[in-house]
Amino acid sequence: MNIKVISFQVADSIDLKGFKKDFTASMSFASSDELFYQIEKYQHLYVFQFGIVCFSGYNETEMTSFLQMIAPFCKNFFDQRLSDEFHIEVGGSTVQYGFDKIGIPEANAETLRLIMLNVSQSVALDYYSQQTNSLLDETNYHTQVLELKGKIDLNGINLKKYIGRTLNIKNKIAGNLYIFDSPEETWEDERLNKLDIGLKKIFELQPRFRIIQEGLSIVKENLELFKDLLQNKNSVTLEWVIILLILVEVLNLFAEKIFP
C-alpha cells in the first residue's frame, strides 16, 4: 500500500482557534500551535499555526477543496505555494528509508503524524531559506555598490525598512523554533525516536537550519556596517551644517562692523 504525503506553505500564519471551531472532523492531537485530524483510516490532516497544511491520503480535488475552505483563516494566503511530497510504503518487515519515500511495517496515527511533521518542517525550511536568500541578494547588491562607489545608496528610511524585514524573518524563525524539535512522544518511544532521527537525516533538517542561521548572521553583520556608515554620513553632514552656521554668524559680525 502506498500513501502520499504532501505539505504546503499556504500563508504566513493560520488562525487555529477559529478554524478549530468550524472544522468538526475527528481530532487526534491538538495544541495552540498545531492540529492533527484523522479523517479516515489512512487519511490524515495536519494544520500548523505557522501557515502550513499537510495531507496524507488525499487526492488533488480534496486538497484543493480544503485549501479553499481554510483560506479565510489564513493571514496573507499565498497564490504560489511551496510544497514537498513524500511517499509511504506500508507493509514491509522493517523501516526502509529512500530519497523521497519511506517503507514502514504499519501505518498507525503516531507514525503518520511524525512523518507528516518532518515533511512540514522541510517545507518551513524551504520558506525561510527563500526569504533569507532574498535578504542575502539585497545585501550583496549594497556591498557591491559600496565597493564600486565607496558609499551606500541607502537613506535612513530604506535602511530601517531593510532592518525591519531582517528582524521580521528572524522573529518568525525564533517564534517557530519548536517545529524543529522532536515531539514528546519520541522521548518515551524508542521506535518513534529512531524513526524521527532517520527522517531528519533524509530531509537534512539540521544542516539546512544552520545554513539559514548563518545567512541571517551575514545579513546582520552587514546591517551593522551599513548602520555605522549611515551614522557617520549623518555626523559629517551635521558637522558641515554647524560649520556653515558658524560661518554665517561670523559674516554677520563682519557686516555689522563694516556697515554699522
Structure write-up:
There is one protein chain. The strands form two sheets. Strands 3-4-5-6-1-8-10-9 form an eight-stranded mixed β-sheet, with helices on one face. A hairpin with a 3-residue loop joins strand 5 and strand 6. The protein starts with a strand and ends with a helix. It has two domains: 2-108, TATA-Binding Protein, CATH 3.30.310; 121-234, no CATH class. The chain has helices at residues 16-22, 60-70, 109-149, 156-175, 185-188, 190-203, 205-258, and strands at 2-9, 13-14, 27-30, 34-40, 43-48, 52-56, 74-75, 82-90, 96-97, 101-104. It is α+β, with helices and mostly antiparallel strands. The model has no long low-confidence stretch (mean pLDDT 84).
Helices and strands, in N-to-C order? EEHEEEEHEEEEHHHHH
Q: How do the strands line up in the largest sheet? A: 3-4-5-6-1-8-10-9
- Assess the beta-strand content as a share of residues: 15-25%
Q: C-alpha Rg, in Å? A: 27 Å
> Considering DSSP H and I runs of 4 or more, what fraction of the residues is helical?
55-70%
DSSP helical segment count? 7
The overall number of domains is 2
| Residue runs with pLDDT of under 50 for 5 or more positions | none
List keywords for this structure.
260 residues, alpha+beta, TATA-Binding Protein, 2 domains, 8-stranded mixed beta sheet, two-stranded antiparallel ribbon, elongated
